[in-house]
Each structure stands twice: as structure tokens, then as C-alpha cells.
Specification:
Blueprint (H helix, E strand, L loop, with lengths): L24 H14 L9 E4 L5 E4 L7 H4 L3 E2 L19 E4 L6 E6 L2 E7 L7 E2 L1 H6 L8 E7 L2 E10 L2 E3 L2 E3 L2 E5 L9 E3 L1 H4 L2 E6 L4 E6 L1
Parallel strand pairs: 6-13, 7-12
Antiparallel strand pairs: 1-2, 1-3, 4-15, 5-6, 5-10, 7-13, 8-9, 9-12, 10-11, 14-15
Length: about 220
């Protein structure tokens, strides 16, 4: 069978057509793939390149298939190599996605296995948890250190106690010293301050109406 742009061994040669140097790469790849499927060990065979009298370039893994007149001038170009392998996708980072509609971002956390709802507050230096929430978690409040705090409602006296850890966004932070103070008129258990948030990358995407916390 005649091939207008080249020839792979096994096809009928056409010695009288005009010289051409175009290589049938697609046909070569198909031939190598078929050889690998039928004869698995052939993928380790050498690959030879030779040029006929018309200037057509041929490839073959069978040296004996090259006409004797061209066999001595054939070049061994090595074993056929597989195509590039696609790297597996990187695992998605652990974290949480929180709906955001323009109001406070409330993060679900836990202390000693007790669930808490804490408002993300990047303006607060320390994390604040209400006395009632700490009591539910079994935290002893009697040994706390007295501290003065300042908020939008003015100054107040509170206590500072150490908790072994807070669990949130798939990770653990602690031990951490938290401020013990009630949040008047709030339905949450406290505020997440920068002392805890520094362990996360925080992204607030107003357009997508979501906030994302990913551990650093």
C-alpha cells in the first residue's frame, strides 16, 4: 500500500516517488503501542532509523526488516520511551468552609470534646470564651489570672486561664490562654482572636459568600 508521506516497515515500498523527509510520527507511535500490547518485552528493544534512496526516513525495532542495502547505514537511536506521565493531583488542604453573608463569621470548635461556637475576630489579640462555655467543658476557673480588657463597650475585669487545646478546622491549637468573659446579648460562646487565628490562613470571599480556614 502506498503512503503519500512516508512508510513504516511492513508496508509495500514505493521507490519511485519524489524525495520527502517527513516522518510519520503518528504511525510510528501506533506501531510501538501495538508492539507493546502484543509483545510486552518488545518495548525494551532498540529502535533503528534508516533512510531509503528517495530520502524517506523509516523507523523499525526489527533490524532484519531493513533492506540489506541500507542496514549498515541504519542508526540505533535507543529504546522506545513511554509518553509523559501525568502527576497525580495534589491533595486538597485540610480546612473548613463557612457560609458568609456579610455578618459575623461563626466557627464551630470544641474544647475537651464540648462543641463551641466562636465568632472570628481578627481585631482581638486573645481568644475569649464565656464562663458558661468553659464550665460546660470542665475547665477550672478558680486559678485564673485577673486581667483588664477593653472592648467596644468599654473596660472590664476578666480572668485569664489556660486550656490544653482548642479543636477547629481539622487541627488542634494549644495550649492557649483564653480570656474568661461573658458576651452580653450574644448567642455564641466567645471570640476567636489572633492568638489562635495565627495558626490558620483565613480567607473571606464575599463574592462567593464563604470564608475559608486552612491550617498553616
Amino acid at each position: 500500500m502506498k503512503n503519500p508521506i512516508g512508510q513504516i516497515d511492513g508496508a509495500t515500498p514505493s521507490w519511485n516517488r519524489p524525495p520527502t523527509f517527513r516522518v510519520v510520527l503518528a504511525a510510528l507511535a501506533t506501531t510501538i503501542t501495538l508492539l507493546a500490547l502484543v509483545f510486552p518485552s518488545s518495548v525494551h528493544a532498540q529502535l533503528y532509523r534508516w533512510t531509503d534512496a528517495t530520502g524517506t526516513i523509516h523507523y523499525t525495532t526489527d533490524l532484519a526488516a531493513i533492506p540489506p542495502a541500507y542496514r549498515d547505514s541504519a542508526h540505533d537511536i535507543g529504546a522506545p520511551t513511554p509518553g509523559p506521565r501525568q502527576a497525580p493531583p495534589a491533595p486538597a488542604p485540610v480546612g473548613i468552609v463557612i457560609p458568609y453573608t456579610g455578618g459575623p463569621v461563626v466557627v464551630d470548635a470544641s474544647l475537651n470534646g464540648v462543641p463551641l461556637r466562636l465568632v472570628l475576630d481578627t481585631g482581638a489579640d486573645r481568644t475569649l470564651i464565656s464562663p458558661a462555655a468553659l464550665a460546660r467543658a470542665g475547665v477550672d476557673l478558680t486559678g485564673g489570672t485577673v486581667v483588664h480588657i477593653r472592648g467596644v463597650t468599654g473596660d472590664a475585669i476578666a480572668a485569664l486561664v489556660s486550656v490544653p487545646r482548642l479543636d477547629l478546622a481539622g487541627t488542634r491549637v494549644g495550649p492557649v490562654a483564653v480570656v474568661v468573659h461573658a458576651l452580653a446579648g450574644q448567642s455564641v460562646d466567645g471570640l476567636l482572636g489572633r492568638d489562635v487565628l495565627d495558626a490558620f490562613t483565613v480567607t473571606v470571599d464575599a463574592a462567593s459568600q464563604r470564608a475559608i480556614l486552612v491550617p498553616r
